[in-house]
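Feature request disguised as a bug: please show the residue count (131) next to DoxX-like protein in the output. Example input:
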Amino acid sequence: MPTPLRALARVLSGSTYALLGADALRTPGGRVDQAGPTLALMRRALPMPADDELVVRANAAVQLGGGALLALGVLPRLSALALAGSMVPTTLAGHAFWSIEDPAARKMQRIQFHKNLAMIGGLLFAVLDRP
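Example output, currently without the count:
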């Protein structure tokens, strides 16, 4: 039986990914253009669909499903691992601070990049969690 604190942590973390994934799945919008350069680089090494919107929506579906499963406590270690994997391209594509010239915008994207690294770290703790 999970402790109340463990269950609360899963709900708080998982629901965040589920909401973000649902939003990106419903309206991928600018995420597709933002992801384009990173996806082009990834395609050099990985077999991936050529449709950037499809890839963005697939990543969003992983976040929606993984977040829901984590929040419900269903396969929490596996869902956290899937979420961590989905956050790597999300972070690289969405917060490429190294490619931004404007110092203020660069700083904001660097903060978001490191926030995402912290989220990945939290997911890795969930992967290692043992009741």
